[in-house]
Amino acid sequence: MKHYVFSVKPSLIFLFGLFMLMSPLVLTAAEEKPADPAAKTGDNTVEQQTTLINIYSWATILPKELIDLQNEIANEKKIKAVEDNLPALSEEIAAIRKETNAVQKSPELQGQQVSSLQDRTQRAGARLQNSSEPITKRITLLSENRKQWIEKKDNIVNTKKQEEIPLIIGKDQHAKMLKTVDEAVQIIEEQLKIVLNVGKKIGDLQIVLYGIDSDLQALEKTIRETSIQKTAPSMLSSEFYSQINRDIIPQSFHRTVIFFADLLHNMRVNLNYVLLGSLAFGLIAFAAYKTKDSISPESRWAPFAKRPVATAIFMGSSLNVINNIFPLNADIPEQWKALFHIITLFAVIRLTKHLPIDKPKRKLLTQLSLFLSVTMIFLLLDFPKVLLLLYVFFSSILALFYYLSRLRSMKGKEFSEVWQQKIWGILPVIVIISGIAGYSEFAVMTFLICLWTIIACLIVWVLYLFHLGILELILSFLPIALVHENYKEMLEKVRPFIAWFHILILITIQSVIWEIYPTINEAFFKILNFGFDISGVHISLKFIFTVGIIFYGAILVSKMIQAVLLKKILPRYKAEKGVQLSITRLVHYAILTVGFFVMLGVLGFQLNQITLLGGALGVGIGFGLQAIVNNFASGLILLFERPIKVGDTIQIGSELGEVKQLGLRATVIQTFDNAEIVIPNSDLITGQVTNWTLGDRRVRVKIPVGVAYGSDIAKVLDILISCGKANPMVLNTPKVSAFFLAFGASSLDFELRVWIPEFLDKLQVLSDLNQDIENEFSMNNIEIPFPQSDLHLRSIDDRAAEQLQGRLTVVPESGLTTAQVEEK
Predict the structure, then answer these.
(1) Are 383 and 292 within one domain?
(2) In this structure, are residues 165 and 177 in contact, taking their beta carbons and an 8 Å threshold?
(3) Do 89 and 205 form a contact (C-beta atoms < 8 A)?
(4) Are residues 315 and 343 in the same domain?
(5) Is 309 within the bounds of a domain?
(6) How confident is the model over 586-618, as pLDDT tens digits?
(7) Is a pLDDT exceeding 50 seen at residue 19?
(8) What is the per-residue pLDDT across 95-145, written as a single tens digit (0 to 9) for each?
(9) Contact predicate 816/810, CB 8 Å
(10) Residue 59 gets which letter from DSSP?
């Protein structure tokens, strides 16, 4: 099976070149400022008087515009919808205010409660912001309309100064226009009052939210300060254990009953959502189960198909992560969120049994997940803090013993693995020492942070595998043959972006775990906008991701289109291989160019700024890019005119080879010695190039032959023609021909000429014909002479003649001359 995968490097070079050429526009965009309106007025400003045509047209147009204004205001529903949603939003903010006050007065301040309130505050703020946007736009629009109508009124009033205008339109018509304008202004002002009143309500709610946020920040600061203070007796002292009394168990049971009562109440109130979620959960689990028999065991989706229930839970977790990053207008009870987190941990434990993890590591992760689940249950049921401290303290002791038991198994392992084991062994020691010293808040915080740090890495890793698996499943089931055949390569191409996105999610979650940011939403966008300024341009992770996604997206789209062209479309028209590659290459560069300009638009460049590119190009070409631009233009000429194509056999000077790649800057030619020659495109345009296969791959083969004088000429010609016709690689048309060319010095010179369909077979045909001709000549006693020379001695010394004669005497026993005997 053939896959169409292309190199990325030339594309990146092409895009990088465009980006570097356009980089001066960044500074220009940053330095440009909107012109001062005052600067547009000068000393030569002329007062524009209202013309007769304008006044005459207003008499007809103004009533129509008034009717349109009335209809537009009557049909405006956004402001009404915003006003109707404000009471519910006001109740939610009041509830947050009440719970914040309760937390401030609570003797046991918990960070989880503060984080939950901060999350709800942020969601309410986002809803208020969404509500204020149409209000702001509406106020701007109404103010602009009011200004325009007042300008029209001023122009109508000024017409009294022009004597000819009242004569044309009449005083009644003039008064009617003024009345129309006054009525329009009154309607706009009444609507503006309504909108401003709604805006005032939103502003009041935003002030309340700002106060709540300030109080929550103060509580968060207090929690951080108390986390490093001694807040409880030592866990080895009797004073600590004196807190355990008979009331703890009934109190814990009572809080458990309250929790489940609230849970059932929320389920009854949100019964529709519960039923809908249960139905969605069942459908997802059933669909995952059905895919088990349709995939291969090596598929990335296979571990999730084997655990459909855990997969359905984890898909909900994936949606929950997205909801935390991009908050929806859905207020999920905090109890449900906490329960969902606990259930997700158990789902992760189930899924890890089929994921590529070592058995000891899987066992350790399972134990840590169980520890964290129990801790979350303690916090969720709001058990007395002394029970939580006991659980954390003795769990850390168990973790320390487990670590000590594994010290022997670490012998002989790599240094990095041993170092990691030692680092994790320090953490339970810190918790134990903190509990003994009385720093209970610090002990609990360290315990939770360590567990959540490890489990968050595990969850994000499983989430990454889950998204890869579901993407592979979707691509493999698409009813498109090209996608079905190449879905693995497509998945490998998008995998880096999926990996980077999950790394960003992991950093976001860890920043919340370590209390750098209060919520996931705030952390995500703060990290995404983190960067620095260069000449007024903010270079952030968002900027880099945007550029990278557009660049890489353009490359991926180009590859997909090239694959479709090469495999589906162009073969239908029986286009040659070189033509196909030339067309796809042009499409490739066109898509990259479009992607580049799309990137400029996304980054905020204006079209008039792009005109500065000509000056930048001129300077660049003049100082050092002349050769590059020359080769670039030559490459475009080669792609459009196609004097040479990929697969052609060309000859440049003494080098003969096949064209392997046509690039923007250079062309790669592979010789028949398997050497690759990189030739600048300008040399192919300006120099002489012999293309043996431009219009046709047929080629003529010429075989020169010499026979001895006295041979039968007609018979020689017949033998040559019969040898040519007998070769299976020789074409019948043009027909085989043989010629008697000349009387040579040692032979009669003939030449056999044949045509073959493929240039690359020339040497093979030449060799075969030479063998056939030699065999036929031998069978027909036709001699192929070799050059002979006669030496005539006009005078020689007698003694030398005798010696020469003696050396040339034949020895009877051997039949050799004396000279030959001496040589032996």
Answers:
(1) yes
(2) no
(3) yes
(4) yes
(5) yes
(6) 888 888 888 888 887 777 766 666 666 656 666
(7) no
(8) 899 989 988 887 766 777 787 788 788 888 888 888 888 888 888 888 998
(9) yes
(10) H
Beta bridge partners of residue 752, listed in sequence order: 703, 738
DSSP conformation class of 817: B
**How many helices (H) and strands (E) are present in the chain, helices listed first?**
29, 10
Considering 169, 193, 226, which residue would you say is the last residue of a domain? 226
Residue 661 contacts residue 646 (beta carbons within 8 Å): yes
Task: Tell me the residue range of the domain where 356 lies.
Answer: 238-453
Q: For position 776, what pLDDT does the model report?
A: 93
CA distances from 220 to 114, 115, 225 (A): 7, 8, 9
Distance CA 756, CA 752 (A): 13
Which of residues 614, 633, 656 is at a domain's end?
Answer: 614
Average pLDDT of the residues in 639-643: 80
Q: Is the pLDDT confidence value at 765 over 90?
A: yes
Tokens at 36, concatenated? 């001062």
Cα separation, 50 vs 152, in Å, equals: 10
- Do 139 and 195 share a domain, yes or no? yes
Q: Report the alpha-carbon distance of residue 690 to residue 127 in Å, rounded.
A: 71
Same domain, 127 and 261: no
Write phi, then psi, for 44 (nearest 5 degrees).
Answer: -95, 20
| C-alpha span between 551 and 540 (Å, rounded) | 17
627 assigned to some structural domain: no
719-730 average pLDDT score: 94
Residue found under tokens 């458990």: 256
CA distance linking residue 753 with residue 755, whole number of Å: 7
Residue 753: phi, psi to the nearest 5?
-125, 125
Q: Give 21's pLDDT tier (boundaries 50, 70, 90).
A: very low
CB 471 within 8 A of CB 494: yes
3-state SS class at 743: strand
pLDDT tens digit sequence for 188-202: 889 889 989 998 999
The per-residue pLDDT for 767 is: 94
Say if residue 222 is in the same domain as residue 242. Answer: no
H-helix segments, 626-761: 626-641, 681-686, 713-726
801 and 707 in a common domain = no
Helix (H) or strand (E) holding 677: strand 676-680
242, 221: one domain: no
Number of domains in the chain: 5
State whether 340 and 438 are in the same domain: yes
Residue 38 pLDDT class (50, 70, 90 cuts) = very low
Asked whether the beta carbons of 159 and 165 are under 8 A apart, the reply is yes
Is residue 629 included in any domain, yes or no? no
Q: What is the pTM of this model?
A: 0.66
Q: How far apart are the first and last CA of the chain?
A: 65
**Is the model's pLDDT at 670 over the cut of 60?**
yes
CB neighbourhood size of 460 (10 A): 20
